[in-house]
Write a structure and sequence with these properties.
Keywords: Cytoplasm, Methyltransferase, rRNA processing, S-adenosyl-L-methionine, Transferase. One of its GO terms (molecular function) is methyltransferase activity. The protein contains eight helices and ten strands. It is α/β, with parallel strands linked by helices. The chain folds into two domains: 112 residues, 3-Layer(aba) Sandwich (Cobalt-precorrin-4 Transmethylase, domain 1), CATH 3.40.1010.10; 111 residues, Tetrapyrrole methylase, C-terminal domain (Methyltransferase, Cobalt-precorrin-4 Transmethylase, Domain 2). The strands form two sheets. Strands 3-2-4-1-5 form a five-stranded parallel β-sheet, with helices on both faces. It has a five-stranded mixed β-sheet with strand order 6-7-10-8-9. Helix 3 packs across helix 4. 34% of the residues are buried.
Length: 236
């Protein structure tokens, strides 16, 4: 009986300028792989070439997985059962966290394949590390609702939960809606609640600041189209 192939969770850069953040052993593994599940074929090709310009991109099998096209998990199982190793690439940072890569990982577990998470940059953990907020008790809630009533309700609930549990709340937004999200936070949270904004992590323009809501209202950063993590802490 053929031993199932392995699934490598391959980290990618958070910024195009931050190839230094990827450990050398990632390149060594990537050079051995010919099948990848990726969110965007063009950016995946660019990243793989940046890791090793000698990689024959045209010889690779790049399988899409994104919000419009879920990964073909049946194909993933078939490839693994044939003994084929698979790489999973996120658009930024570590795969299978806030992206559809977890579905391929689920499929791999179902056929008893080995899963190998690889070390690399993770914007949520880097932001939490730099925030000064509670790193012992935290919750990542992903994207907040887009519609104003639901978003306002969610922000207030997260603040209340943070205050009650002394828990740091982490969330993200599509970059072109960052400014509106920050406005909604400042309009609906208490003056003493702390908010950390971590934008462009690992890039030359990296910006990480923690202030109270009252302090943020005095001067707002420009966050339009900048990848950002928002952290909220209302514990005393």
């Amino acid at each position: 009986m053929t031993t199932p192939g392995k699934v490598y969770l391959v980290p990618t850069v958070l910024s195009a300028d931050a190839l230094f953040s990827i450990p050398a052993y990632v390149t060594a593994i990537v050079q051995q792989l010919t099948v990848f599940y990726v969110e965007n074929e063009r950016t995946a090709r660019r990243y793989l070439k940046a890791l090793d310009r000698n990689i024959n991109i045209d010889a690779l099998q790049l399988l899409l997985m994104n919000e419009n096209q879920p990964p073909d998990v049946a194909l993933a199982k078939k490839l693994l059962l044939e003994g084929k190793d698979i790489g999973i690439l996120s658009e930024a940072g570590c795969p299978a966290i806030a992206d559809p890569g977890h579905l391929v990982v689920q499929a791999a577990h179902s056929v008893d394949a080995r899963i190998i998470p690889m070390i690399g940059p993770n914007s949520m953990l880097l932001a939490l590390m730099a925030s000064g907020m509670n790193g012992q008790n935290f919750q990542f809630v992903g994207y907040l609702p887009i519609k104003p009533p639901e978003r306002t309700k969610m922000i207030k609930e997260l603040e209340l939960e943070s205050e009650r549990k002394k828990q740091t709340q982490l969330f993200i937004e599509t970059p072109y809606r960052n400014n509106q999200l920050l406005k909604d936070i400042l309009d609906n949270c208490k003056d003493h609640t702390q908010v950390c904004i971590a934008a462009d992590i690992t890039a030359p323009t990296e910006y990480i600041k923690t202030k109270t809501v009252k302090e943020w209202r005095k001067q707002l950063p420009e966050l339009h189209k900048r990848p950002a993590i928002f952290l909220l802490y209302a514990g005393q």
